[in-house]
Amino acid sequence: MLETRVCVIGAGPSGIAALKNLLDLNIAVQCYDLNDQVGGNWIFSEKTSHSSVFETTHIISSKLLSQYEDYTWDDHYKNTGTIVSNYPSHQELKDYFQAYAAHFGLLPQIQFKTKVLSCELVNENWKVEIEQSGVFQTEIFTHLVVCNGHHWNPRYPSYSGMEEYSGKLIHSHDYKNAAPFKGKSILVIGGGNSACDVAVETSRVARRVDISWRRGYRILPKMFFGIPSDMVMSRFVKFKLPLWIRAKLADMTVRIITGPNKNYGLPEPEISVVGSHPTINDELLYRINHGKIKPRLDIKSFEKDKVVFKDNTTEQYDYVIACTGYIITHPFFEKSLIDFSEGKVPLYLKMLHGDIKNLYFIGLFQPLGCIWPGSELQSKIMAREIAGLWKRPANIKEKIKDEIQNPHYKQIDTPRHSITVDFHKFRQELLKHLPRNFRNKSGINERSNAN
């Protein structure tokens, strides 16, 4: 019988949390990552890569709700002397993740520049094929932990005539900075965070920027009354208000601060502020008011050299930038085994498969907030189960069905919203499966001394 040996795919924010918590329990582990350093999606590159961040990207959740329990921003300051902004940039976040990896001694367990080609169940173990600089290798593991992210495989929109369109159409995944769009006419498709950021950034240099929404979105400011908006919403949680009341209060607060969308020429949302992933942007409405961005209706179709909108107006653009989300993709699995590219994702606690007991997904959820605090707690549960300190429920398939039928929020039915959770409620659900002393801040030196 093979001794316990765990494979972790990915060394982004979720992968390093998984790796750290496995090492905390002295579990043999090997991590593979396609990049040349820790950071995953937060490693900015001017070339198209795994990362979807661009030059000016800042996180949309505030730093106090975007930290690990085992390595807080205060810990980061004590170790590095670094003070970060309320809404850290991609560089600040990459530095944070790399400091986390260094503090907990994770780097020796990570093989960088490594592509995982396939993962196959053989005699209840995982046969993992990897490729490093043209050299192929196969390894056997008892457990597999998947942390490859879900913001890297672009999902393009589907409109009539797109196949014949001769203009330049790119996805926001390929957008890195505004410089190439200087003096150009731009159409941005979408109303999410990437779309609004791209519209704002290009409007500083472009000749013209239009933005087309398929439906109405509620635009939240980053600050309410001088306080990060998610911290204000968190105060509603302290009063133990039901989700529906919190949603009503959030709607009312945003409407008081920004007013109705019609004042900006934008369609009104037909759902509450939590009915879709929140769009947080301080500049979009400002740039619209100053004539730098023009709202357009939804697209009706594309013609050879123009875009037709639903009011039958047409326009020619130098670039169309589709900010239309990503496809959940696990290219190393046969689709007959795992395929979450469409529909609901049937995982208990957004991490445990109903049939395959030695397979874990960490970070495969989209919180109304930040991902890695939840990924860290998932990692602790995963590591504890592998170490024999926790057992999954016997009726796990019923639990999965219940989670799918009773999501935290009833959101619009799109692929993007198939994995949504409420940040605070999900955290509480995960904490129920952990002991009170779940935190472990011991760095590599303390761990080595303990062993």
Question: What does this entry look like structurally?
Answer:
The chain is α/β, with parallel strands linked by helices and 451 residues long. The protein folds into two domains: 6-152 and 326-450, 3-Layer(bba) Sandwich (FAD/NAD(P)-binding domain); 162-322, 3-Layer(bba) Sandwich (FAD/NAD(P)-binding domain). The chain has eleven helices and 22 strands. The chain has helices spanning 13-24, 73-80, 90-103, 193-203, 229-238, 243-258, 284-289, 372-386, 396-405, 423-431, 444-450, and strands at residues 6-9, 29-32, 110-111, 115-122, 125-132, 135-141, 143-146, 168-171, 185-189, 208-212, 219-220, 223-224, 227-228, 279-280, 294-296, 299-302, 307-309, 314-315, 319-322, 359-361, 366-367, 420-421. The chain has a five-stranded parallel β-sheet with strand order 3-2-1-7-20, covered by helices on one side. It has a five-stranded parallel β-sheet with strand order 8-19-9-10-15, covered by helices on one side. A three-stranded antiparallel β-sheet has the order 4-5-6, with no helix packed on it. A hairpin with a 2-residue loop joins strand 12 (223-224) and strand 13. Helix 1 packs parallel to helix 8 (372-386), helix 2 packs across helix 3 and helix 8 packs parallel to helix 10. The longest helix has 16 residues, at 243-258. The mean pLDDT is 92.
List the main descriptive attributes of the protein structure presented here.
single chain; 451 residues; alpha/beta; FAD/NAD(P)-binding domain; 2 domains; five-stranded parallel beta sheet; 11 helices; 18% strand; globular
